[in-house]
Design goal:
The complex is a heterodimer. By secondary structure, chain A is of the alpha/beta class. Chain A has a single domain, classed as Rossmann fold. In chain A, strands 6-7-8-3-9-10 form a 6-stranded mixed β-sheet, with helices on both faces. A 4-stranded antiparallel β-sheet of chain A has the order 2-1-4-5, with helices on one face. In chain A, strand 1 and strand 2 form a beta hairpin. In chain A, helix 3 packs parallel to helix 5. Chain A is globular and about 50 Å long. By secondary structure, chain B is α+β, with helices and mostly antiparallel strands. Chain B contains 15 helices and 10 strands. In chain B, 55% of the residues lie in helices and 18% in strands. Chain B is elongated. In chain B, helix 2 runs antiparallel to helix 11, helix 2 runs antiparallel to helix 14 and helix 11 packs across helix 13. The model of chain B has no long low-confidence stretch (mean pLDDT 85). Chain B has 2 domains: 193 residues, no CATH class; 186 residues, no CATH class. The interface between A and B is medium-sized, with 32 and 25 residues.
Amino acid sequence: MSEALIEARAVTKVLGGIVPVTLVQDIDLIIMPREFIAITGPSGSGKSSLLYLLGLLDIPTSGEVLIDGISTSRMTEDARAEVRLTRLGFVFQFHFLLPEFSITENVALPMRALGKLPPRAIIARAEELLESFGLGDHRHKTPDQLSGGQRQRVAVARALANDPPVILADEPTGSLDSVSTAQVFGILRDLVALRGKTVVAVTHDLDLAAQMHRRIHVVDGRLANDHAVTAPA
Amino acid sequence: MNLILTIAWTHVRHRARQTLVAIAGVMTGVGFSIMMAAMMEGSQEDFIRTLVDALPHISITDELREPTRQPADIVYTAAEFHGLTPDIRRPGIKNPMATIASLQTWVPGALTPSVQSKAVLRFAGRNLTTSIIGIDPRTEAEVSNLATHMKQGTLNSLYRASNAILLGDRLANKIGARVNSNITLASAEGASMNATVVGIFHTGFRMTDETTGYVLLKTAQILERQTGIVNEIRVRTRDPMAARLISERIGEQTGYKSISWQEAQEDLLSAITLRNVLMYTIVGAILLVASFGTYNIISTITHEKTRDIAILKSLGFRDHTIRAIFIVEALAVGLAGAVLGWIFGYLLTRGLASLEFKTPFSDYNHLPVLYSVNHYLLATGVALLSSMVAGYFPARAAARLHPVDIIRGAT
C-alpha cells in the first residue's frame, strides 16, 4: 500500500467567540494517491472547513493533519505556505484569479513564487497548461474577458502549475452552467485518470459525487459516511 | 521582472489616478522642502559671506584683555585705593609695525594697520558726525573689499592730495559733495583740517555708506593728534572659519583684545543655528504630511486587494512576500514623487531666485538661494523613509490576513 498523501487525525475546529461554534469535529481521514474524492453534506455541515483544514489554509483547534506523513501542527506559517505551494493545488467556487493579470500570468504566479524554473520555462509551462485545457487562444486575455467556465479552467491550470500531487477543490462547479460544469468536471476526472493526481472536491451536486471514486459525507461537522463509489482508475 | 515588482507595479498601474495623487503629494513635499532648504541656507550663506566680506576676519584693537594694574596692586596681595587718578595711557597699539611683522610670520592671511577716529564733517553748511578710518592703501586691498566697492576713484587716489578722503556714496549725496569737493574735518581731539574728496565708494551696507570716510593712516593720525598711532590691526585669514582659533592665539601673543568675526557676531550666528532647527522642523513636517498621501494610497490598495492577498496566500505566498509587495509599492510612490520633486524643487528655487527684493539694510535685490545636492538627497531620504513607514503598516496588516476568513466571506 502506498503512503497517504493527506491524513487527518481527530481533527476538530471550533470557532471561538461568546458562543463557540464547532465547524469540524473529531474527523479521521486518509487520502491516498490517485483518489477522486467528493466531500458532500448539507449547507453549513463543515465540508469547506474540512477542506481548508486538509489544505493547511486553517489550523485545527485539536488533532493534526499530516501531509506526506509529516505532521503540520508544529509547522511555521512559512513552512505551511511552502507545503501549499509545492504539494497542494486549490480551486475555489469563484475562480479567484487576479483581475489585472493575463491568464498566462495568473497560471505562472505559483511557479514564479516557487522560483525553480527560469522565466521562459515558466511562461512555456503556463501556456502549455492553458493549451491542454483548450485556452491556448485566450492566453493574453485577462479573466474578465473569459466566460465562467473558462475562468474555472484557468483556475485548475493555476492549481496544477507546480505539479502538486493533490488538488483541493471547493465547489468547483458551484457557479457554473451545466455545459461548463461538465467541462470542468471532465478536467478534474482527467487529472486523476491521465495525470495521476488526487482530487478532493467539495460539492453539493450528488450526481457529480456519484461519478467520483469515494464519497465522504459530513453532517454537523462529523464524518457521517466514508465509502467507495467506484474503484479508482 | 521580479515577482514582487511585477505585482507591485501592476497594483499601482491599475490605480493610476490614486497613485498620481500620492506621487503628487510626495512631489510637492519634496519640492517645497528643497526650495525651503535652498532659500534658508542660501540666505544664511549669503549673510555669512557678506559678513565675512564686510568685516575684518580678525580685529586687534588697543584695548587690553585685562585692565591695567596699579603698581601697589602688583607688589601687595591686597591693596585698596582711594582718590587715585589713573595715568593717562597713550592710546594705540605699541610698536604696531613690529607687532604686524611678528604676526605675519605665522598668521595665514594678510594684515593691515588702521586708525579708527571720529570727526565732524562740514560741507556746504552741513555738519555730520562720521567715522574716519585711516588705512594703508597698499595693504588695504588684501584685507577688505573696499577697492572693489569704489564707484569713483581708487584707493591710490588717497595719494593724490595732501588730505584726501574717500566717502561713502550715501554720505556724499547727503552733503552734496562730489569728487574734488573740499570739505572740512574736525576731530574730538580738536584737530581741524581741510580735505579733498578723491573717491566715492558703495559697499551696499547703508550704515557704512552713510557714515564712513577713508583717509590715509597719516591723515587719521593727525586728526587723533597722535603721531604714529595705530589703534587697530585688521586681519583677513585665508580660511574665514579658522579666524576664531587664530584670533585666540593672537590675543595670547599680543595681550591686546583680538576679536574674530564669529565672536563679534555671536548673537547672529546662534540665531542662525536656531533658524536651522526651525527650517529642518518645517521641512520634516512638510514631508510627514506628504507621507500621509502615501499611507492613504497603500492603505486603499491593501483594502481593495484583500481578496487577492487571500488568493496569493492560499497559493503559498509567504507573509514577507506579501509585505514586500506593499512596501515596494510605497517606495515606488515615494521614489517617483522624490524624482519629480527634484524637478519641482529646482524650478521653485529658480523662480524664487529670480524674484527681486529690497531690504533697508542693503541693496542686494535678488533673494539668495543655495543649490546643494545635499538638499535633494536629504529630501529624498526623508521621503523614502516616510513612504516606507507609511507603507509598512498597511503591508503588515495585509500579511496578517487569514485567507480562510476572506475566502469564506467571498463564497
